[in-house]
Write a structure and sequence with these properties.
Elements (H helix, E strand, L loop, with lengths): L1 H11 L5 H4 L4 E5 L18 E14 L5 E13 L6 H16 L7
Parallel strand pairs: 1-2
Antiparallel strand pairs: 2-3
Length: 109
């Protein structure tokens, strides 16, 4: 946790060295903070995948009673290097991520 805080502080100060941000296998790219609702993230070799997170928006959704109401929606997409990660495995990862976002108590049980 301490190392994570130190790296985040260095990143904010733009003082990270290449050794401190390379060598990973998976990245998360968030353009939602710039009000981009959807985008295709490009894999950074030698990584095998990247998760693209868009903006949270109010969208019309039909509820169980059939009425339309506005709910928060978030678009998340993932790019995988299919030489390493099968698309079905990536899809299961996204299913699990969705369940955890919709049911955050899953993280503690």
């Amino acid at each position: 946790a301490r190392e994570s805080r130190e790296l985040a502080a260095k990143a904010r100060e733009r003082k990270l060295t290449p050794e401190q941000y390379t060598g990973s296998t998976f990245s998360v790219s968030n353009l939602g903070m710039m009000q981009i609702d959807q985008f295709t993230a490009i894999i950074n070799p030698p990584e095998v995948g990247i998760l693209a997170i868009g903006a949270i928006e109010d969208r019309p959704v039909k509820n169980a009673a059939g009425a339309v109401e506005f709910r928060k929606r978030l678009r998340v997409t993932m790019s995988c290097d299919h030489r390493v990660v099968d698309g079905a495995v990536g899809a299961r990862f996204l299913q699990t991520l969705r369940r955890m976002i919709e049911n955050p108590l899953m993280l503690v049980y």
